[in-house]
Design goal:
The structure is a single chain. The protein contains 11 helices and 12 strands. The protein is an alpha/beta fold. The protein is globular and about 45 Å long.
Length: 264
């Protein structure tokens, strides 16, 4: 049986880890290198490093930060933010990323996913989807849809999230990083209807992001996400605050019968 993964996320702005609510009100949460090393010691299965201002600022990802994190990290590293071309993806891999997450640029030109998957391997190509509830957008089936948003939630695209996940993985993306804009930073739990829709639309692994609760409910939230079809759960605030470690979360999940990778 495949193990289900627990992934801390480092949202980075100007070389510092930040965290907010619904991508706004960002506050400093520490040094990415120190946090990366800590999370590996504390049992993380993978790490995600996202430059949250690169796309909005019209620049690429900070390669120096990626390289510095890689030097202290032995577990897989996914890097996203500001990826606009195959060369951008290649540069991130050379800097130390194992996987590259593409968001806005893939929406503008879906062929980019095919180019990355063809040249670098589908296992390196992650489509990052930020989605919000919408009363105006529906899936082709007529079901009420979640709408893809970009630029830190500043722009709504009118594109149904599940349909985009299906197209993106057909284009070559080997994994979906699915973030609920509505739940991000709220601690209200993962958006299970969103997860269920996207899970039904693609066979690719899905990482649930946005809404992980605090210490008292993090395991219940993760368990619900796994039952809704997630292959991994991503969290930030609960780990940054020191309320919980990845190892402690995995231990509780294991007690509830969830197959997780044990600590080495």
């Amino acid at each position: 049986m495949l193990t289900l993964r627990v992934i801390p996320c480092l949202d980075v702005d100007s070389g510092r880890v930040v965290k907010g609510v619904r991508f706004q009100g960002l506050r400093d949460a520490g040094d990415p290198v120190e946090l990366a090393a800590r999370y590996e010691r504390d049992g993380a299965d993978e790490l995600c490093l996202l430059d949250v201002s690169a796309t909005h600022a019209g620049r690429g990802h900070g390669l120096a930060t990626v390289a510095a994190v890689r030097r202290v990290l032995g577990i897989p590293l996914t890097v996203g933010g500001g990826v606009r071309s195959l060369d951008d993806a290649r540069q991130l891999l050379l800097a130390g990323a194992d996987k590259v997450a593409v968001n806005s640029a893939a929406l503008a030109r879906p062929e980019l996913l095919t180019e990355i998957a063809s040249e670098l391997g589908a296992q390196c190509c992650v489509v990052a989807i930020d989605a919000a509830r919408s009363s105006a957008v529906r899936e082709p089936s007529g079901e009420a849809a979640f709408e893809v948003v970009t630029h830190g939630g500043r722009r709504r695209t009118g594109i149904p999230a599940a349909s985009w996940a299906q197209r993106a993985t057909e284009r070559g993306a080997g994994e979906v990083l699915l973030t609920s804009f509505d739940r991000d930073g709220t601690g209200a739990g993962y958006d299970l209807p969103l997860l269920t829709q996207v899970r039904a639309a693609t066979r690719a692994p899905v990482i649930a992001s946005g809404g992980a609760g605090g210490r008292s409910r993090a395991a219940a939230d993760a368990l619900a996400a796994f039952r809704a079809g997630a292959d991994a759960v991503l969290a930030a605030s609960v780990f940054h605050s020191g309320e919980l470690t990845p190892a402690a979360l995995k231990a509780e999940l294991a007690r509830q019968g969830v197959p997780v990778r044990p600590m080495d």
